[in-house]
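Q: Could you predict the 3D structure of Glutathione-dependent peroxiredoxin?
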Amino acid sequence: MIKQGDKLPGGTLFEYVEVEGNGCSLGPNAFDIAQATAGKTVAIFGLPGAFTPTCSARHAPGYIDQAAAFKAAGVDEIWCVSVNDAFVMGAWARELKADGRVRFMADGSADFAKATGLTLDLSAKGLGLRSLRYSMLVKDGVVTALNLEDGGAFKVSDADTLLAQAKAQQGA
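A: Sure. Here are the predicted structure tokens for Glutathione-dependent peroxiredoxin:
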């Protein structure tokens, strides 16, 4: 399992892009994780699934609402990562009115979740292999803070916790 001080594993995440530009075509675009985090500070939060109750009502909205505060704390981008396809993640971002404040990145085959060891098996609930609920701060591809939830809990991966960590690291 990934831990603080580890480099993110290589791989690809996908994002549904609705407006052509900045080298992106319409529709799902692949992003190399190492290239996308190089030289940046990225707040990443992972969750079990788009449109699910806690994820939609509390987890993602916290990051969307705090986007400006994250920028002020030196965070270049915020990523929401879930084991869903890019079309679902794009629809969810529209539903939540993320408006470019948070990038909704698809890990459709759970490759990133598996590579980091942050998987959650929800097969008994008909959801299959999903991402554990977590948050992490990544600087130039290296994890500098990591908050893991136990099972389906939502206690330490919230926006306020990661924002406090980003502010503390900014002042350090």
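Q: Anything worth pointing out?
A: The helical segments are 33-37, 53-65, 67-72, 86-95, 111-116, 159-171.
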